[in-house]
Specification:
Layout lengths: L1 H34 L3 H7 L11 H6 L3 H33 L7 H13 L4 H11 L17 H12 L3 H9 L4 H12 L1 H16 L3 H6 L8 H20 L17 H35 L2
Helix pairs in contact: 1-13, 4-7, 4-10, 7-13, 8-9, 10-13, 12-13
């Protein structure tokens, strides 16, 4: 009887999680289906999970100039990978000494770092600093250097480093290992959950960033994928506005229905989210553990 009750309980749990997974997957599948739909069908029948007719016009519109979008992909991947790796290394090197009890001026340095979370210089001073003093505008480094340190990630790493027993480092010191060797060969390998957590959060932030390109980049060869997609969307909206007001050149565009608006939006979402969907499974097994330890323990 007890086994039967347990089986019934597990059965309902499985049903619940299946429904939750379906609810989570449904929006993504709908976006994917609409991206392969015809614009006129979307206007007439709305969003449908199964397209009435497979149409690649949205992707053809986005990849009309493949060199441009592939270059933007390359810039975004380079910025995401380089920025994430450098950021994780630097933040861990800041967090590790702060996790030690015998660090000199530990409280003052911690407060100094924490103070930057409460107050920032603001957009205008930051723009002046990056353009007139550091001269980072129209360079790849504007995407990387200003965002190398995230204070919240530093404290998350520091909290995780505190959970590592001091005896590990002390025994290595007795064997003749230096601090750098202990840090890179012992502490970092033990900190994979925390490192994977901050790496994933940082990579997502860099991948989705379009505001930096809008502010600092005027060279089309250095724009990121997100900013390029936003510009394409703005161009479509401009064409729609001109078409609805009757300001279009005769014969240039037949009607508003010929403008791939909704389908292009969905295709843009698929293009933008694709690489992150491939990366996330590699970090997933570390993500929950690293985030939980970093947020619960003081």
């Amino acid at each position: 009887m007890l086994a039967k009750k347990r089986w019934c309980s597990n059965w309902w749990i499985h049903i619940l999680f299946i429904l939750m997974c379906a609810a989570i997957l449904f929006p993504f599948l709908l976006i994917l289906a609409v991206s392969f739909s015809n614009e006129k069908d979307v206007a007439l029948y709305g969003y449908q999970l199964i397209p009435k007719k497979i149409d690649f016009s949205a992707y053809q519109y986005l990849f009309k100039n493949p060199d441009t979008i592939l270059r933007a992909y390359g810039v975004t991947i380079l910025v995401t990978v380089m920025g994430t790796v450098l950021s994780v290394v630097l933040m861990s090197m800041v967090a590790y000494p702060l996790s030690k009890r015998n660090m000199v001026f530990k409280q003052g340095i911690t407060f100094y770092i924490f103070f930057t979370m409460l107050f920032s210089g603001g957009l205008v001073p930051t723009y002046i600093l990056n353009t007139q003093y550091l001269h980072l505008n129209n360079t790849i480094w504007i995407y990387i250097l200003p965002s190398l340190i995230n204070v919240w990630h530093v404290f998350l790493l520091r909290t995780f480093f505190k959970s590592i027993p001091d005896s590990i480092g002390e025994s290595a010191l007795l064997d003749g290992a230096g601090e750098y060797r202990i840090f890179f060969t012992m502490i970092l390998p033990l900190s994979k959950p925390a490192l994977a957590t901050v790496a994933l959060l940082g990579a997502l932030t860099r991948w989705n960033d379009w505001f930096t390109a809008m502010l600092y980049i005027s060279d089309d060869k250095l724009i990121t994928l997100q900013y390029l997609l936003q510009r394409i969307l703005l161009n479509i909206q401009l064409l729609q506005g001109m078409s609805s007001s009757g300001n279009m050149v005769p014969g240039s565009i037949l009607s508003m229905a010929d403008l791939p608006s909704e389908t292009v939006r969905m295709a843009m979402a698929i293009i933008a989210i694709g690489p992150m969907l491939l990366v996330f499974p590699f970090f997933q097994k570390y993500f929950v553990k690293g985030l939980t330890i970093g947020s619960v323990k003081g």
